[in-house]
């Protein structure tokens, strides 16, 4: 219980205190909690989509620098079995299970990491709003004590708290990329874009929400300008990625005329 209390004291934030997000502070917290749960290294990675075709990857880690340089220079991410697992599952994965697979040594990410001194580890997949994918890994030095069941449980518990920071990272990336986290779309602009996302034409949207086609085009144009989009397709994409429109949030207005706002 004392270990859990220590974890909570490090990672649980006081919402009433209005604690601001800071990368250096998060990095310090991750270092502290890694030591508390009995590991040597951590890696916290988040992929934030900024367009449908591109994402910004944010990585915080204290893994050996030469391993990280090798990983980046050789684009290991594109065949990393841990990353592939985290894209398709929410279950924690032990690194020893990857060593056992039939992937050639030069494409087995865990065997490659072992060459740089990394030993046993565990990775927990993470998810957040608006398509953000993440993971957190904890590992020990090569030759260290075998990974215990208790350590795996603690790593999973820590991951549930770390997930709370993903939206902070997403907000930071969106501010860097778009100048703001969300565009201030009116309800009508949200509804019109939502129906465009459903494949409806301006005329069809007008029939659904009870206004003229010209009015629909006016709202879509305004929304596009706010989102800095060059077409209605790009406007829909940006609106979804930034959370300016979300599935079901305009459900109350579907099929009904809505008041001007």
From TrEMBL:
GO biological process terms held by the UniProt record: regulation of DNA-templated transcription
Residue ranges of coiled coil: none
Gene3D superfamilies according to UniProt: Transcription factor LuxR-like, autoinducer-binding domain, Winged helix-like DNA-binding domain superfamily/Winged helix DNA-binding domain
Cross-referenced InterPro entries: Sig_transdc_resp-reg_C-effctor, TF_LuxR_autoind-bd_dom, TF_LuxR_autoind-bd_dom_sf, Tscrpt_reg_LuxR_C, WH-like_DNA-bd_sf
CDD domains associated with the record: LuxR_C_like (cd06170)
Residues covered by the HTH luxR-type domain: 178-243
Keywords: DNA-binding, Transcription, Transcription regulation
Annotated GO MF terms: DNA binding
Protein name (database record): DNA-binding transcriptional regulator, CsgD family
Lineage, broadest ranks: Bacteria, Pseudomonadati, Pseudomonadota, Gammaproteobacteria, Vibrionales
């Amino acid at each position: 219980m004392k270990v859990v209390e220590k974890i909570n004291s490090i990672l649980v934030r006081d919402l009433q205190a209005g604690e601001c997000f800071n990368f250096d502070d998060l990095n310090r917290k991750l270092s502290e909690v890694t030591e508390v749960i009995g590991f040597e290294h951590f890696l916290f990675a988040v992929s934030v989509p900024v367009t449908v075709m591109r994402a910004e990857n944010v990585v915080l880690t204290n893994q050996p620098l030469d391993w990280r340089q090798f990983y980046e220079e050789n684009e290991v991410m594109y065949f990393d079995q841990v990353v592939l697992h985290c894209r398709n599952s929410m279950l924690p994965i032990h690194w020893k299970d990857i060593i056992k697979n039939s992937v050639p040594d030069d494409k087995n990410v865990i065997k490659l990491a072992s060459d740089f001194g990394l030993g046993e580890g565990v990775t927990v997949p993470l998810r957040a709003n608006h398509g953000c994918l993440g993971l957190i890994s904890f590992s020990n030095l090569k030759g260290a004590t075998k990974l215990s069941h208790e350590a795996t449980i603690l790593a999973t518990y820590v991951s549930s708290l770390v997930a709370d920071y993903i939206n902070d990272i997403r907000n930071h990336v969106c501010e860097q990329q778009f100048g703001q986290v969300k565009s201030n779309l009116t309800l009508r602009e949200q509804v019109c874009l939502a129906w465009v996302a459903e494949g409806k034409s301006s005329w069809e949207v007008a029939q659904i929400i009870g206004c003229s086609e010209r009015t629909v085009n006016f709202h879509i144009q305004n929304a596009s300008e706010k989102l800095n989009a060059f077409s209605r397709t790009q406007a829909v994409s940006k609106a979804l990625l930034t959370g300016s429109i979300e599935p079901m949030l305009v459900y109350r207005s579907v099929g009904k005329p809505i008041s001007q706002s």
